[in-house]
From TrEMBL:
One of its GO terms (molecular function) is L-phosphoserine phosphatase activity. One of its GO terms (cellular component) is cytoplasm. Its cofactor is Mg(2+). InterPro entries: HAD-like_SerB, HAD-like_sf, HAD_sf, TAT_signal. It catalyses: O-phospho-L-serine + H2O = L-serine + phosphate; O-phospho-D-serine + H2O = D-serine + phosphate. One of its GO terms (biological process) is L-serine biosynthetic process. Pathway: Amino-acid biosynthesis; L-serine biosynthesis; L-serine from 3-phospho-D-glycerate: step 3/3. It holds the Pfam family HAD. This is phosphoserine phosphatase.
C-alpha cells in the first residue's frame, strides 16, 4: 500500500502543471517537457517536439489543438472494465434480479454454438443456450441465499468461470458492439454513486494485486448443461505515470486532452477524473459507451444517438463532439489495440499516433509495422512505446516484454 500511495503522490504532483499558463512555443523549443521516467527516448523527443510546435495560448479552448487517448492498456496497464467484472463476479456484487440478469445476458447475443478454443475442458462444443441456462441457474441460486457467498462456493466459482467464458466467446465471435454492451449490462441496476464506489473498490483492489494470469474453471460438481469450462484471466492493474505526465504537459501547453474508451463512460471516469490516481481529467473530457439510466439506475438499453465507442464508433464519437467543437481532428492520438486503429488513422489533422506496443497482430500490428519502418524518420506518423507486461510498467525502449517471458521484442507474434 505504501508503494501505491507513493506512486499516486508522484502522479498527482504533476497535475499542478495543468494550472500553469502555457508558455509561448518559442520559449519551450528544445526544452524537455516530459520527465524521462520510462519513456523510449526517441518517442519522448518526438512528442516533446510536437508539443513545442503546437502549443497554444488561445484563451478559447475550442480553438486549441487537442489530443485523444484510449484508456484501457493505454492510460493504464490492464482493463478497468474487465477487472470490474472479475471483482463483481468474485464477490457477487451484482444489482440485478434473477429475471433481469437472464434478460441482460441474453440480449442481442445470437443463437450459436461456440467452437475453436471455446470448448469444454473435454473438447466438446458449447451452445450459448446451454451456457446461458447455467449462468441463470447459478445466479438464481446465489441470489436466493442471504449474505455474501463464500469464496469457494461451487455456484460462485461456476458463475464466474462461465461469465468470463461467455464474454470471451462473445467478444471473439460476435460484432464488437454486442460484446461491449454485454459486459456493461452485467453492471445494470446500480445507481451512479453505487457504481462509482464499486469501480473504485475494484480499481484499488486490483492495483494491489500481482500482474499475472490465472485460470477460472467450473467446479466438477457443477457441470450444468454446458459442461466444465475454463478460461485464463489476467490479474492486476497498474497506473502509468508517463501518461499522466504527458496529459499534464499537454494541458499546460494549451492542448486539450480527451479520453475515448470502449468501456462504460462512468466506469472510466472514476479512474480518469480522480486526482488520487494521478490523472485528474475533467469529467466532460471522458467519452465512452453510454447507456440509459431509467430511474437513476444503469439500464440495459443503449443511450440514443450515441455510437458504441469501439473501432469506427470512436471516430464517430470524436467527430460528433470534438470535431464539431474544435473544427478539426485531434493533433495526437494514443492507443494500443485494433480497437483504436480507426481512431489512430481516421483524421487528416492528426500529426502523430502513439502506440503502446503490445505486440498485437491485426490492424494495430500494421500500424506498429509502420512505426518500426519510421523509427529513423525525422517526422514519423506513428511511434511505439514499449512495456513490460510482467510488471505493467513501461520500458525505456520501443520493445516490449510479453507476459510470462523475459526477452524484449519489437514486434509479434508473441512466443507460446
Amino acid at each position: 500500500m505504501t508503494a501505491l500511495l507513493t506512486r499516486r503522490t508522484a502522479l498527482a504532483s504533476g497535475l499542478a502543471a495543468c494550472m500553469a499558463p502555457a508558455l509561448p512555443s518559442s520559449a519551450r523549443a528544445g526544452t524537455p517537457v516530459l520527465a524521462p521516467l520510462k519513456w523510449a527516448p526517441r518517442t519522448r523527443r518526438v512528442i516533446e517536439g510536437l508539443i513545442a510546435t503546437h502549443a497554444s495560448t488561445d484563451p478559447d479552448p475550442a480553438r486549441r489543438p487537442y489530443a485523444v487517448f484510449d484508456w484501457d492498456n493505454t492510460c493504464i496497464a490492464g482493463d478497468c472494465e474487465e477487472t470490474l467484472l472479475h471483482y463483481t463476479a468474485s464477490h457477487f456484487l451484482f444489482a440485478l434480479s434473477p429475471h433481469d440478469f437472464a434478460r441482460a445476458t441474453a440480449l442481442d447475443v445470437p443463437a450459436r454454438t461456440f467452437g475453436g478454443e471455446f470448448r469444454t475442458v473435454e473438447g466438446h462444443r458449447v451452445r450459448f443456450a446451454d451456457l446461458h441456462a447455467d449462468l441463470c441457474a447459478d445466479y438464481a441460486l446465489l441470489a436466493a441465499r442471504p449474505g455474501a457467498p463464500a469464496a469457494d462456493d461451487p455456484a460462485l466459482l461456476s458463475l464466474r468461470s462461465k461469465l468470463v467464458f461467455a464474454y470471451d466467446a462473445i467478444t471473439a465471435t460476435c460484432d464488437g458492439d454486442v460484446s461491449c454492451r454485454w459486459i456493461i449490462r452485467l453492471l445494470a441496476g446500480h445507481d451512479a454513486a453505487g457504481l462509482a464506489a464499486l469501480a473504485r473498490a475494484s480499481n484499488t483492489w486490483h492495483l494491489g494485486q500481482g500482474i499475472g494470469r490465472e485460470t477460472w474453471a467450473t467446479p466438477a460438481t457443477r457441470p450444468g448443461r454446458a459442461g466444465i469450462v475454463a478460461r485464463p484471466v489476467l490479474t492486476g492493474l497498474r497506473l502509468t505515470p508517463e501518461i499522466a505526465d504527458l496529459q499534464s504537459a499537454l494541458r499546460a501547453a494549451g492542448i486539450e486532452v480527451y479520453v475515448c474508451s470502449a468501456s462504460l463512460e462512468e466506469v472510466v471516469a472514476v479512474f480518469a477524473t480522480d486526482p488520487d490516481y494521478g490523472y485528474g481529467l475533467p469529467r466532460a473530457n471522458v467519452l465512452g459507451v453510454r447507456m440509459q439510466w431509467p430511474g437513476g439506475r444503469l439500464g440495459l438499453n443503449a443511450a440514443p444517438h450515441w455510437p458504441v465507442t469501439y473501432r469506427e464508433g470512436k471516430v464517430r464519437a470524436i467527430r460528433n463532439t470534438q470535431l464539431r467543437r474544435h473544427g478539426h481532428g485531434p493533433l495526437l492520438v494514443c492507443g494500443d489495440s485494433s480497437g483504436d486503429f480507426a481512431m489512430l488513422g481516421g483524421f487528416a489533422d492528426t500529426k502523430l499516433g502513439l502506440i503502446v506496443n503490445r505486440l498485437l497482430p491485426g490492424p494495430i500490428g500494421t500500424l506498429s509495422a509502420q512505426a518500426i519502418a519510421q523509427m529513423s524518420a525525422p517526422d514519423p506518423r506513428f511511434v511505439l512505446q514499449g512495456r513490460d507486461d510482467n510488471t505493467g510498467e513501461w520500458r525505456p525502449s520501443e520493445q516490449s516484454i510479453p507476459l510470462g517471458h523475459s526477452l524484449p521484442q519489437l514486434s509479434g507474434p508473441v512466443p507460446a
